Amino acid sequence: MKNNSVKKLVEISLLIALEVILTRFCSINTATLRIGFGFLPIAIIAMMYGPLSAGVAYALGDLLGMMIFPSGSYFPGFTLTAFLTGVIYGLVLYRKPKTWPRIILAVCIVCLGMNLCLDTAWLHILMGQGYLALLPQRIFKAVVMIPVQTVLIGLVWKNIVLKVDKSYGVMPNA
């Protein structure tokens, strides 16, 4: 039992570190838009360990990223969005078949609900720009990221995570 807890903690910690790196260094950033791949480690945590683990991991990743590599002022709304994003991925994908329709559902809820609506509201509060003025750029991001996230989450799960776990003799909820 103790080994499983340590293994889980180490795997989640490594995926949080990967999230910070992908978000801070492998993304396109403007004042009102970030297009990156930090969602991928969190989706993996959600699929392997559940909604609470993924939510806490993404919130911690957001906080660590802001402390270690600040990029503007800290706003707690984005940490809330990060937590909710991890929870949503977990609720839709944890202990359920990782089918394309299920992955598309999770990605659409995150991209349209969290990134488009909630993050736009935080930007409106933070920057003072009109909500509707921010929407065209945010809609463009959602349209681009829905297929990108869907394909990457599905491919990484089926071609990397399952193969690595099979080699260690552990079979996650496929």
UniProtKB/TrEMBL annotation:
It comes from the Bacteria. The chain crosses the membrane at residues 39-61, 73-94, 103-127, 139-157. The keyword Transmembrane helix applies. Gene3D superfamilies: 1.10.1760.20. InterPro entries: ECF_S_folate_fam (IPR030949), ECF_trnsprt_substrate-spec (IPR024529). Keywords: Membrane, Transmembrane, Transmembrane helix. The keyword Lyase does not apply. NCBIfam families: ECF_S_folT_fam (TIGR04518). This is Folate family ECF transporter S component. It comes from Intestinibacter bartlettii.
